[in-house]
Amino acid sequence: MVESAQLFEVSPVIPVVTIEDPADAVPLAQALLDGGIRIIELTLRTDSALESLRRISTEVPDILIGAGTILSPSQADAAIAAGAQFLVSPGTTPALLDHLLAQSVPVLPGVATVSEILTVLERGITTLKFFPAAQAGGQAYLKSVGAPIPQARFCPTGGITLATAPDFLALPNVACIGGSWLTPMDAVQEKNWQYITDLSREAMTLGR
Ligand code: 3PG
Fold first, then answer.
1. Rounded to the nearest 10 degrees, how much is the dihedral formed by the CA atoms of 48, 51, 55, 58?
2. What pLDDT, in 10s, does the model give residues 166-206?
3. Cα distances (angstroms) measured from residue 136 to each of 25, 113, 130, 160
């Protein structure tokens, strides 16, 4: 099993992936892998998300597959049962945090305020998702937070593009970023796997 901190070392970009048709799950994951990406945050936003998670976890073992958009304890349980190797939440409540920390997989709790950051740090977790990153203050916000709270390390996600990624990755408290731009909906619908591989390869050049 990987530790939370190790999630941050896998790739400069964690693709945030939403899949409608589970038949797309394996070729999409393979396309990311072919471009060098070895980690996915699969959002639990579609009816078929758990089935897609199951397929990727069994058929593409070289990808670290996690579940995102975890809003409730029951979603965390379902994701783990489907093969999720890590869990990501967009925000943090005391009940959700309790449940996430009781699991045997690494977690990236979502935070957007200083008090939320402190709440998660109090529980011994220093790897956090900053969401929604661009909208909640972006790179300037993370820079300010880094002065009083340097021990918190972030994966900012939300509104980040290939063009803005370097500004985030240049910060000492940012280990990697998340983004959905590697798997555009139209490319998935057209099954344009080569395009997704090309985007992945381009994202891998963002290395620190
Ligand atoms: C997320 O769930 O983390 C975000 O929806 C991803 O944000 P983006 O689509 O702006 O990259």
1. 150
2. 999 999 999 999 999 999 999 999 999 999 999 999 999 99
3. 31, 9, 9, 12
Among residues 4, 22, 8, 12, the alpha carbon closest in space to that of 182 is found at 12
Q: Alpha carbon 196 to chain centroid distance? A: 17
Tokens for 151, please give them. 């021990």
Annotated active-site residue 129? The verdict is yes
Residue of 140, 192, 204 lying closest to 31 (CA atoms): 192
For atom 9 of ligand 1, which residue has the closest CA?
180
Q: Which domains does the chain have, with CATH numbers?
A: 4-204 (3.20.20.70)
Average of per-residue pLDDT values in the chain: 95
Contact 79, 53 (CB under 8 A): yes
Of 17, 89, 131, the one to substitute when testing ligand 1's pocket (max ligand atoms within 8 A of C-beta) is 131
**Single-letter residue type at 182:** L
CA of 181 to the centre of ligand 1 (A): 9
Span from the CA of 104 to the centroid of ligand 1 (angstroms): 25
Ligand 1 touching residue 158 (CB < 6 A): yes
Ligand 1 centre from 98 Cα, in Å?
24
The pLDDT assigned to 3 comes to 75
Q: What is the pTM of this model?
A: 0.95
